[in-house]
């Protein structure tokens, strides 16, 4: 979640000096109670799905997998599916529930990069962290930071919540448990390279206090009934009267068929411009999830050394 704390000219906090207090991107989710409105509020309008705002930046990213390079130029056809739409939704939500449990049994390496981009298209600040999601000998899952260069972000800052969102928000999973909270609308069918997919628009039925939601579009593989791509953002954006702002960028997450009929997130990217009252800030974000391995007797983890995450 991106957050800038700024003030008017009468107060001194963090202000149009461009000292951002971004709760950042990514995604994007859980907000402190003070940043929420009371009770349900009207969901925001459905976003468009054109090209991301601003010309693409070219920073040093984790290497994008093939899933992020699929041909997405095929038109969406509006022919009805062979089975009722309600059945497709019920079945892919059940598959997502199963996948969510299965992913908890895997180790993987995660590289997260967030950059601010100047007017010339160059990165003028960066936060980067690589970590292993692994297990202790006792079988407890935890994150071990393996690389965290000095943080050079100046116009924005990250919170611990932002880092948590990387794990819990960007790889959007629409399970049977979460399904009642969302309106899911069938759009049509689209081919992504060799994949034949159903396309759905997804948005919260209503926004409850202290809750965060995904709003956007998902692509579901016709054969395995798993989400293979999502494109959208976390909602709602927050703009408070005291000048505090929490803005969330649009992102794309791509999945690959790692195990059986399960599609695992392997890459998230965002190129967006956040329109703060104090001025626009263009950002670039990338998350790479790699080296998935199922934890079990054939995998020797060894004695881990706990490394605390650096303070954002």
State the distance separating the first and last CA atoms: 13 Å
Write out the strand line-up for the largest beta sheet, numbering strands in chain order.
4-3-2-13-12-11-8-7-6-5
- Total DSSP helices: 2
Structural class by secondary-structure content: mainly beta
Give a quick summary of the entry:
The protein has 312 residues and is mainly β. The chain has two helices and 13 strands, in the order βαβββαβββββββββ. The chain is globular, with a radius of gyration of 20 Å.
Structure report:
The chain is mostly beta strands and 312 residues long. The chain contains 2 helices and 13 strands, in the order βαβββαβββββββββ. Residues 5-43, 49-59 and 297-307 have low confidence and may be disordered.
Task: From the structure above, extract its key features.
312 residues, 39% strand
Element layout with pairings:
Layout: E1 2-5, H1 85-103, E2 106-117, E3 123-135, E4 141-147, H2 160-168, E5 182-192, E6 195-204, E7 213-221, E8 227-235, E9 238-239, E10 244-247, E11 251-259, E12 262-276, E13 279-294
Antiparallel strand pairs: 1-10, 2-3, 2-13, 3-4, 5-6, 6-7, 7-8, 8-11, 9-10, 11-12, 12-13
